[in-house]
């Protein structure tokens, strides 16, 4: 058993490639000292499955929301369905994964029309948001700044950070946390390395984004929550500190953002 405690702040475990061995996956994450994880939701049809596994495994909390690449599935009834799902289960700790992705999709208007109601709902329910932002930092900052100026911007985290130090500073100024995934272990991810070195001690999380983006030395394999230890170790090297320090800081930050303990 590991003597450190870690939190994987973002993963996906209901995809097909975990169906056969989920109990083994949970056993491995327990052996690495992972006390909690946040299972991010990509579309509304996933919610019943997320609810089920979060009640089967004590470590699993989850979010409810619609991913920007699924924005075409946003309907008039979606916001009320998300509200109901969040209110009826105390293991829901966030709204998301929401955001903007202009790398793969050009449907900017459709994505924004799905994003704004979810941001409003999170503020209304006093839940943080899990933000997916790819090739869309300027637009995302503009939307969050506008909400912030109105006093209606929810707390939240930029998950799987891939931006620049300057973009990170703008999100930090808006009060957001920054979450580092296995990408931070990739040798050529120079700007992300720089961000990981300078992010404040009280403003970063770590994640796997399983089953994607396995960290070194697991690249090319299916990612899983146990590998968040590799992310933590790499962060410790980048920040010239100990693994134990990264574990304590990132876990406290995740607790502060998601408020797990208030839910039990």
From TrEMBL:
Ligand binding (a divalent metal cation 1): 10, 12, 97, 209
Cofactor note: Binds 2 divalent metal cations per subunit.
Residues that coordinate or bind a divalent metal cation 2: 97, 132, 159
UniProt cofactor(s): a divalent metal cation
Alphabetical keyword list: Hydrolase, Metal-binding
UniProt-listed GO biological process terms: D-amino acid catabolic process
EC number: 3.1.1.96
Catalytic activity: D-tyrosyl-tRNA(Tyr) + H2O = D-tyrosine + tRNA(Tyr); a D-aminoacyl-tRNA + H2O = a tRNA + a D-alpha-amino acid + H(+)
Gene Ontology cellular component annotations, sorted alphabetically: cytosol
Signal peptide: none
Pfam families hit by this protein: TatD_DNase (PF01026)
An example molecular function term from Gene Ontology annotations: metal ion binding
Functional note: Catalyzes the hydrolysis of D-tyrosyl-tRNA(Tyr).
Protein family per UniProt: Belongs to the metallo-dependent hydrolases superfamily. TatD-type hydrolase family. DTD3 subfamily.
Listed name of the protein: D-aminoacyl-tRNA deacylase
